[in-house]
Amino acid sequence: MKKYRVVSGSMMPVIPIGMEIFLEEVSFPDLKKFDIIVFNDSGKYTCHYIWHINKHLDQGMIITRNLDGYKFDDPFAFDQVVGRVTNVKLPLWTKLKLLFWIK
Question: What Gene Ontology molecular-function terms does this entry list (predicted)?
């Protein structure tokens, strides 16, 4: 199990700056919407939640979002995923707000 310390506020208030997160290795078919993952974004690690997964492509494409302004990340391939966060989940209320764009 890998562990990292969060250095930005893009997932606040669910994951505050300075919080330690734990990652597990995950296979592509096991990923699902709203999983919080860490991925390699051009050499820097980013922690966001999954918004969409296209499982019909050979390498699979993932689109993530942050909680700071609900910005979408550019699509990326599964091989950029470092791991899934195990010690934090998005609360149900947050998921509902995100589904219906309630700020």
Answer: serine-type endopeptidase activity
Report how far residue 7's alpha carbon sits from residue 14's, in angstroms, rounded to the nearest whole number.
14
Q: Taking Cα atoms as reference points, which of 30, 28, 41, 29 lies closest to residue 71? A: 41
pLDDT recorded at residue 48:
97
Q: Name, in order, each residue with C-beta under 8 angstroms of 28's C-beta and a sequence gap of 6 or more.
A: 55, 60, 78
pTM comes to 0.92
Domain extent for 34: 2-101
Place of tokens 């947050």: 94
Report the chain's terminal Cα–Cα distance, integer Å: 34
CATH code, domain with 38: 2.10.109
pLDDT tier, 7 (very low <50, low <70, confident <90, very high otherwise): very high
Which residues, listed in sequence order, are joined to residue 41 by a DSSP beta bridge? 44
Question: Domain total for the chain?
Answer: 1
Q: Name the token pair of 20.
A: 């330690």
User: 28 by DSSP, 3-state: which?
Assistant: helix
